[in-house]
């Protein structure tokens, strides 16, 4: 039985938590060091390493971004199933290789000290799919616009969490402007929050600072951008949930591009370094959102290839592999996608 890390979200982020009977004031490294040894001593499919050096469990919690409350309360989108004969599906597939002109597919984002994984996963998939649909033409949808303007009914500040469904709905109904990374001059609304460390010897600086100010839905582009906010927007044509079967997901990605996914996040995932991740009975923390861009087989173990938003120093250069075909961490039951104009 998994030991729960209970996270109750009341208002913006009043967190009541217990991590294996340890206080949230406990240094996360002290807890994770034992877990790293445990994972690496097992005959399992992945390797762990010490991440989030010098942090408390509470500061780690503040960087996830897809609370279960939002997953349970938001509207359910229609399900699109795309199954076909298994013989038509290759053993391995990587969207970065399939669409090499769409460089956004291989981009690893940095959400910084903002609970915005829900926006990064959805907006990342939107950006990839726009490029695929338009034959390599890139339009980088703005994560900042999504975080600030696609307001969740459950959170007054979307740096305190949100839902991939809300992000997709806002894109469909209202549209998003273009954007880019922190401190960049890319697009109408670049991201407002700097990257920070998710790795034991990171180069960005600590994530333990207070959460940023509430994102403001400022419907103007940065100074010097040649278009107006309204003229820069692009909308989606339709959005949907991806079918739960392995072949549904494979055919969706293979034919239309990466998808966004919500997964249950356990404490050992934070320590991922390489291999095919599967939870080994660690504490449940919260939900988290990622982008799924392919699949393959490693040492006889089937996996999904995913991009995280904890910068390229975490995990396998920002990517990770997760067990495929068993709904590991509920990922296969919580995938969303859309079709751009």
Automatic annotation (TrEMBL):
<dbReference type="InterPro" id="IPR012599">
    <property type="entry name" value="Propeptide_C1A"/>
</dbReference>
<dbReference type="Pfam" id="PF08127">
    <property type="entry name" value="Propeptide_C1"/>
</dbReference>
<dbReference type="Pfam" id="PF00112">
    <property type="entry name" value="Peptidase_C1"/>
</dbReference>
<dbReference type="InterPro" id="IPR025660">
    <property type="entry name" value="Pept_his_AS"/>
</dbReference>
<keyword id="KW-0732">Signal</keyword>
<dbReference type="InterPro" id="IPR038765">
    <property type="entry name" value="Papain-like_cys_pep_sf"/>
</dbReference>
<dbReference type="GO" id="GO:0004197">
    <property type="term" value="F:cysteine-type endopeptidase activity"/>
</dbReference>
<dbReference type="InterPro" id="IPR025661">
    <property type="entry name" value="Pept_asp_AS"/>
</dbReference>
<dbReference type="InterPro" id="IPR013128">
    <property type="entry name" value="Peptidase_C1A"/>
</dbReference>
<dbReference type="InterPro" id="IPR000668">
    <property type="entry name" value="Peptidase_C1A_C"/>
</dbReference>
<keyword id="KW-0788">Thiol protease</keyword>
<keyword id="KW-0865">Zymogen</keyword>
<feature type="domain" description="Peptidase C1A papain C-terminal">
    <location>
        <begin position="89"/>
        <end position="339"/>
    </location>
</feature>
<comment type="similarity">
    <text>Belongs to the peptidase C1 family.</text>
</comment>
<keyword id="KW-1015">Disulfide bond</keyword>
<keyword id="KW-0645">Protease</keyword>
<protein>
    <submittedName>
        <fullName>Cathepsin B-like cysteine proteinase 3</fullName>
    </submittedName>
</protein>
<feature type="signal peptide">
    <location>
        <begin position="1"/>
        <end position="18"/>
    </location>
</feature>
<keyword id="KW-0378">Hydrolase</keyword>
<dbReference type="GO" id="GO:0006508">
    <property type="term" value="P:proteolysis"/>
</dbReference>
